């Protein structure tokens, strides 16, 4: 429940205090620093829970604010690479966390878990210093009523030019800014107004499907799973480190591919890669895993390779794109609320999958991998039919896609003339 509620808290807090995405990053630093300091020092369960709640609130601010900040600051032609950098840093952080866990496993006296948890305060401290130098996004400044000259100067600085491109982008941002009143009603508007139905469906279904790939089940319980198939404790942890390295490399590759090949291509290809690997993992375990829980050495090594293939498929598709696409599909007046919904659904499903995975593994055994493979087929079909391509579009013009999509056009009115829509590629949908 905490994992779900804390995702809505950032949008409510920021709307009450009038902050933008930069303020959300600063709040992330404050809460994670406090949680990272209090959790390892816990003397009892209550202190541990308080520390984890502080960490959760901080991560809620970060996951809500950072993808939006990157999407609004990045130039349209590089928005995918900038935003995928968020997932790259998450992957690098998870890799470092696995190394820390591997190193603290043998610390005597029960101090290993305290060291592992204390490390969380280190990156938060670095980010806290860096956040002091972050400007607000142009979109947030306009929404807060700042002078247009100030926004124009910021755009010139971050875009590196003073020409017509800056003026065009400023005009788009101003046109997208409905009013402060509607911005403060963003969540209610998202839930009740028909014209936001495409964004609402995608804000729910993309993070839902992202978790139904089974990635967090593998991430959380990979050591348990690998011990189940006959590996020792250290070997299982080392295999997880290898898996994480593969994930980092694939996420890095996605930064270069997403703005060249587009979001849909990566979604579809990554989904196919994960389906094949999940089916093969399930087939190997169904055919060779006996009641004693052991596999031959060759089968165990093949299983590790297939898990790495699955992880790389996720890391260059559904992993980064599950954050990128929700952050770029919302109009300005509901953008913060929409991202809060997406993040809340993501972590609600993370909790549900994490809590149910071991029980499902015990009851379904190898069948659990076919279960996730079936979801992968469903989500790949969903993307093929219902997700328009947003590659290269200015974030303020993404709204034009819905009125020209074969399905979503029934929910929205035409938001631009045909010539303008053809100019940004909508006619290709």
Automatic annotation (TrEMBL):
Which CDD domains does the entry link to? MFS_STP (cd17361)
Task: Give the UniProt family note.
Answer: Belongs to the major facilitator superfamily. Sugar transporter (TC 2.A.1.1) family.
- Give the matching PROSITE patterns: MFS (PS50850), SUGAR_TRANSPORT_1 (PS00216), SUGAR_TRANSPORT_2 (PS00217)
Which cell locations does it reside in? Membrane
Q: What's the source species for this entry?
A: Oryza brachyantha
Q: Where is the Major facilitator superfamily (MFS) profile domain?
A: 1-391
Q: Which keywords belong to this entry?
A: Membrane, Sugar transport, Symport, Transmembrane, Transmembrane helix, Transport
Q: Does the keyword Methyltransferase apply?
A: no
Question: Which superkingdom?
Answer: Eukaryota
Pfam families according to UniProt: Sugar_tr (PF00083)
A molecular function (GO) held by this record is:
symporter activity
Write the protein's name: Major facilitator superfamily (MFS) profile domain-containing protein
**Which spans are transmembrane here?**
41-61, 81-100, 112-134, 200-222, 234-258, 265-286, 298-319, 340-361, 367-387
Q: What is the lineage of its organism?
A: Eukaryota, Viridiplantae, Streptophyta, Embryophyta, Tracheophyta
Q: Does the keyword Transmembrane apply?
A: yes
Protein topology in the membrane? Multi-pass membrane protein
Q: What's any one GO cellular component for it?
A: membrane
